[in-house]
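Issue 218. Parser rejects a valid record. Input:
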Amino acid sequence: MTHVKPNYESATSKKEQVEEMFDNIAHRYDFLNHLLSLGIDTIWRKKAIRTIKQIDPVRMLDIATGTGDLAFEARRQMPDVHIVGLDLSEGMLSKAREKAIERKLTNMEWTKGDSENLSFEDTSFDAVSVAFGVRNFENLEAGLKEIYRVMKPGGRLAVLEFSKPKKFPVKQVFNFYFKKILPTTGRMISKDARAYAYLPESVQAFPEGADFIAKLETTGFKACKDQPLTFGICSLYTAEK
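Output the parser choked on:
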């Protein structure tokens, strides 16, 4: 996997720059997320949580939880599950906490942490989810190993990640939108010049499809599947321990 960083004016690591980037855009993240995905991201999240619901989990970890949208969808579909949302960015977590309070939701934890060095005991969770976060891992293999470690045997992983459409004309429309419209709109609204330029760059660098499945299998996961969504714009990867 090619290492792509937001490239703020510093020599800091990708991890530190990703944290800075999300702290910078947290105040406009939800608005931009739904605007730039045309609202389709809500459908993708519902599908991801449905795959987790199938195993009736008791404890679930949502890595790169951001402002908590996937965690809140999990709460909606599975009211009794204890959910832990983890993120590098305190700015994003503060928004998630605000939303949880507004919605009067309990049985949810929000913790600042590193996906490649999780603070949880082995076999702590029945399920783990990551929505649009694995491409931000500084070391993808290390992150997947940590996910595997904290999952219980028989547990399920669900990963949503952008992918690159292959077929005409979706490929051409997607590339134009992702490389031209999205960075310009994101920059204007978020006031962060790098954040929405980094997005298409990180998607280009991510080992999607069979390559990501191979990494999951190398880590030890089994029953690994790749389900393309919305003409291949997004992929839902599922795997079991």
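Fixed in the parser; the record now loads. The first helix runs from residue 14 to 25.
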